[in-house]
Design goal:
Layout lengths: L1 E4 L10 H10 L19 E4 H10 L7 H4 L15 H5 L1 H4 L1 H20 L11 H6 L36 H4 L80 H8 L20 H8 L21 H8 L3 E5 L5 H17 L5 H8 L5 E7 L3 E11 L4 E9 L8 H16 L5 E6 L1 H9 L10 H4 L10 E6 L9 H19 L38 H4 L9 H14 L19 H4 L6 H9 L6 H18 L5 H24 L1
Helix pairs in contact: 1-6, 12-13, 19-21, 22-23
Main location: nucleus
Pfam families: Acetyltransf_1, Bromodomain
InterPro entries: Acyl_CoA_acyltransferase, Bromodomain, Bromodomain-like_sf, Bromodomain_CS, GCN5, GNAT_dom
């Protein structure tokens, strides 16, 4: 008996039941402890629905066979006896938002399987699949008891869809959880500090990677046996450059230890637990009274010492090294370049392998690699310098998925800037193309969408990518980027000292005795008698002329979320800013009511939208203007139609959710 399995990786084209099937394949059964994911029973042969659809017209002989025509049902039952709903795909239990998040992760997992021709091999597993399947687990409580030590927060970060041109995996992956007691940190990229210095599974030699038994909690074993292959070749893709690591959340230190068979920390050593620093009485009093950070009178607070990132510790201990490399024909260089190529191909699976290899081994390209023992490449950047033009193009930027939370990406970018300062003293600008998911990461590294470099300098030297956002970073000659943390700390302290000179916010007065415990009730105090109030610039007229701040309700929050979704849409690049009348001279002769997303953002912030209807009307003007000015078959008109459908779907979904 045959059953179908959805082959599409396009989430909008998948039905809810098809997406649920993909989720169930990679999710453990909630009823059976031994079932690690939906598997077809022994009497079921699974085929791709794509194969059935493609053969229905291509082979006329199939009309005489009842066998193929009968294949209309999708796989529903697992070999454990339970269905899709019991394998993490029950919307009523997990909610639509969690269902969509797991769906994106499941599609990404299927893409990885497709790239290695194992989409129909339900028993195949490797390191990347094991790492990403951690996001399909049931939520884990972040509340720990004294006997449990440090709990691992549940990962509820969304997995982004496939990267568009020049995206950074460091930004593609959502905020990782910082393990500091049971608190969670909200970070926008995977380069923020993590107190876990545990080594990862990829550090083990290939021969040492052995199959381990399933853990009692139902975690997936690390088996690498392959079963039947689908035989389907990976589809080709138009050549696009990308600059980043994949959106795969690596396993946390504790989970990694379980997978590696380590129970006593790194290589047998006890796991180190960060101890919370004790506060003295003055710090507790300052926090209790709600005083600003510059409080404390004439005394200056000593800046708190940040925990050193794992990447910096490993670099200092010699576990990792950062080295420059180019194709000079030397064996060492070729080994490292091959490692870079393999890393980029692994972390950017949608990129053609030949295209990556050609750029990495190009004699005009240069690289900077993070290597471990044995020249194992765990991070790297490929760039093309143009010294005579004064800029460099960043082509690829990636770190191994299991190392992203250690801060490898930020450290590599700092070393890259320092390397450019020393090697190319006259080259002060970087350019790269980034998709919407990569913009946040590059902005943290000093990149901006405002291109100050004259177009005549770089136009024609770097490849143009449709749908990508070109970003620029300009270095400062006096900055030592390897010491930027100390520089920023000194700048912060200098600013606070300057504020103390012109402000009285650091002066703390005792509480009014009229309102202390035991004081009589119904006591009034003249504002003029409140210590420090007059000195702060307060006048009685301020009571009369109180500024009324407009209240923003749930509808305003909904419009903010919708606008953010529109701005982050991959097809929104043409609608983000007003059309440049100098470049498109007749645009404003044809379009009488111009509108764009930045104008909508300004109107929303200034409370110019009385209702959601007015907000949607402005968005509709954008799409109508685009279809009016551009031909029907143009990419602009097509993007406008896709954006219009996206907005309607989002509004309908938000309404259903809030109802």
């Amino acid at each position: 008996m045959k059953r179908l399995y959805p082959s599409s990786a396009d989430i909008p084209s998948l039905t809810k039941s098809q997406l649920a099937l993909k989720i169930a394949r990679h999710s453990p059964c909630s009823t059976c402890d031994s079932c690690i994911g939906l598997r077809p029973p022994a009497d079921i042969e699974v085929v791709l629905d794509e194969a059935i659809a493609s053969s229905s017209l291509g082979n006329l002989e199939q009309y005489g066979s009842d066998d193929d025509n009968a294949i209309t049902d999708y796989l529903e039952l697992c070999t454990c006896g339970h269905g899709v709903q019991e394998h993490g795909a029950d919307v009523s239990e997990i909610g639509m938002e969690e269902f969509n998040r797991r769906g994106r992760a499941a599609v990404r997992l299927d893409e990885i399987l497709h790239d290695v021709d194992n989409l129909l091999d339900f028993d195949y597993i490797d390191d990347d699949i094991t790492s990403l399947r951690l996001q399909m687990r049931h939520p884990i409580s972040t509340i720990s008891t004294s006997s449990q030590g440090i709990a691992t927060p549940a990962n509820s970060s969304p997995v982004n869809e496939p990267l568009s041109p020049a995206s950074s995996e460091l930004s593609d992956i959502p905020p990782p959880m910082k393990k500091r007691r049971i608190s969670e940190s909200s970070l926008s990229d995977a380069d923020e500090e993590d107190d876990d210095d545990d080594d990862d599974e990829e550090d083990k030699p290939l021969a040492a990677r052995m199959t381990v038994k399933s853990a009692p909690d139902g975690s997936r074993p690390l088996k690498t046996t392959t079963g039947k292959r689908s035989g389907k070749k990976a589809s080709s893709m138009k050549s696009k450059a990308q600059t980043a690591p994949a959106s795969i959340q690596p396993p946390t230190g504790r989970e990694q230890d379980e997978m590696n068979g380590k129970t006593n920390g790194i290589n047998g050593r006890d796991t180190r637990v960060k101890v919370e620093e004790k506060m003295d009485e003055s710090q507790l009093n300052r926090l209790a009274t709600g005083v600003t950070v510059d409080a404390g009178g004439t005394t200056h607070a000593v800046p708190s010492v940040k925990t050193e990132k794992a990447a910096a510790v490993e670099l200092r201990q010699g576990i990792i090294q950062i080295t420059s490399v180019e194709n000079d024909g030397q064996p060492r260089s070729l080994v490292i370049l091959t490692g870079l190529k393999t890393l980029f191909q692994k972390q950017l699976p949608k990129m053609p392998r030949e295209y990556i290899a050609r750029l990495v081994f190009d004699s005009n390209s240069r690289g900077l690699a993070i290597i471990k023992r044995g020249y194992k490449v765990v991070g790297g950047i490929c760039f093309r310098p143009f010294p005579h033009r004064g800029f460099a193009e960043i082509v690829f930027f990636a770190t191994a998925s299991v190392d992203q939370v250690k801060g490898y990406g930020g450290m590599l970018m700092d070393h890259f800037k320092t390397h450019i300062q020393h090697t190319y003293p006259g080259m002060m600008h970087f350019l790269t193309y980034a998709d919407n998911y990569a913009v946040g990461y590059f902005r943290k590294q000093g990149f901006s969408k405002d291109i100050t470099l004259d177009r005549s300098i770089w136009a024609g030297y770097i490849k143009d990518y449709e749908g990508g956002t070109i970003m620029q970073c300009t270095m400062l000659r006096k900055i030592d980027y390897l010491d930027k943390a100390n520089i920023i700390a000194l700048q912060k302290e200098a600013i606070l000292n300057k504020i103390r000179e012109i402000s009285r916010s650091h002066i703390v007065y005792d509480g009014l005795p009229q309102f202390q415990d035991g004081a009589p009730e119904d006591v009034t105090v003249d504002p003029k008698d409140v210590p420090g109030l007059r000195e702060s610039g307060w006048t009685p007229s301020m009571v009369i002329n109180t500024i009324q701040v407009p209240r923003r309700g749930a509808e305003h929050n909904l419009m903010q979320r919708l606008l953010s979704d529109l701005q982050q849409h991959p097809q929104a690049w043409a609608f983000l800013q007003p059309v440049n009348g100098d470049e498109v001279e007749d645009y404003y002769d044809v379009i009488k009511r111009p509108m764009d997303l930045s104008t909508m953002e300004h109107k929303l912030e200034t409370n110019q939208y009385p209702s959601l209807r007015a907000f949607i009307d402005d968005a509709q003007i954008i799409f109508d203007n685009c279809r009016l000015y551009n031909p029907e078959g143009s990419v602009y008109a097509k993007n406008a139609t896709r954006m219009e459908k996206f907005l309607k779907d989002q509004v309908a979904e938000r309404m259903r959710t809030e109802a």
